[in-house]
Amino acid sequence: YNFNLNMRNHQVEISLVICTYNREKFLPEALESVKIQNLSYQKFELLVIDNFCTDRTVEIVQSFIINNPELNIRYFFESNKGLSYARNRGILEANSPIISFIDDDVILQPNYIDEVLLFFKNNENAVGVGGKVVPKYENGLEPIWMNKYLNGFVAKVDHGDKTKKFTKAMKYPAGCNMTYKKDILNQVKGFNNDLKFRSDDKYIFKKVRQISDEIFYLPKAWLFHYIDNARLEPINFKKLFMKTGNEEKRRVLSEGNGGELFLKFFEFTFKMLASILIMLRFTMLGLYPKGKHVFLSQWFTWIGFLKKDVFVR
């Protein structure tokens, strides 16, 4: 079931897509941050893709739509489970040439959409952007074991305050803050539905780059990414990195490249062994918890890569 209570009959310039799964704790604040955007409501639309939620998501979204009749909001229920399915539904339903994907646990800055749209207007050849992501911890404190090697765990992205093209060293836009032109997403046939959790943002970046490398880091389009205490628990730390390794194997296999699978195995093995040296270095500096978590992140990723399958949800 889908509903569309507020949609106006005019052409929007950018679509904001929130894909959500059982996140009633975070979704309301994410929606409120869309409401306070500086950009005229007539210029953007919000699409909420419910990926088979079993909590109060539908009630939360419906209430938000009713209470904010000035916003262009559409809700869709996507019964195929998996983030890539939800994001592909967003591509299908978007009514604008630019699509921004954000998570259901982010807090946008008021100028977020405005900055993204302005960038594309001033850079016609650009096909994608990724913004800065600032972790917002539930208790306000970063764990003592956090360090630059674990930025991916909390989706932290910070490449400085200057706009620049994404390079190999910068990796790719984080899934909670990435924008692409709709036509380029259609050209690469969207996200890979075989990827259920972690690697679809990397997948889409690599596919788009095969057509154009005009993908930029846009620090002015920044947001907070909410990190609750449960995410930091050892069991969830382990699950996330195991899923990361497993999803990378799925991504490579889906591309039918046996050679890359072999190289990926050696890459993860090398990183796991290198993490031992990093752990020793941190330990010598009196920072053992940091080193321990770097090693565990690579160990669990390696184990996940070797496993046939890892439970997604």
Q: How is this structure best described in words?
A:
With 313 residues, the chain is of the alpha/beta class. The protein is built from nine helices and nine strands. Strands 1, 2, 3, 4, 5, 6, 7, 8 and 9 form a nine-stranded mixed sheet that branches. Helix 2 (57-67) links the parallel strand 2 (44-50) and strand 3 (73-77). The longest helix is centred in the last third of the chain and has 27 residues, at 258-284.
| Overall helicity | 25-40%
Helix tally? Answer: 9
* Distance between the first and last residues' Cα: 22 Å
Kindly estimate the percentage of residues that lie in beta strands according to DSSP. 15-25%
Topology at a glance:
Layout: E1 14-20, H1 27-35, E2 44-50, H2 57-67, E3 73-77, H3 83-93, E4 98-102, E5 106-108, H4 112-122, E6 128-137, E7 164-165, E8 177-181, H5 182-187, H6 200-209, E9 215-227, H7 234-254, H8 258-284, H9 288-306
Parallel strand pairs: 1-2, 1-4, 2-3, 6-9
Antiparallel strand pairs: 4-8, 5-9, 6-8, 7-9
Helix pairs in contact: 7-8, 7-9, 8-9
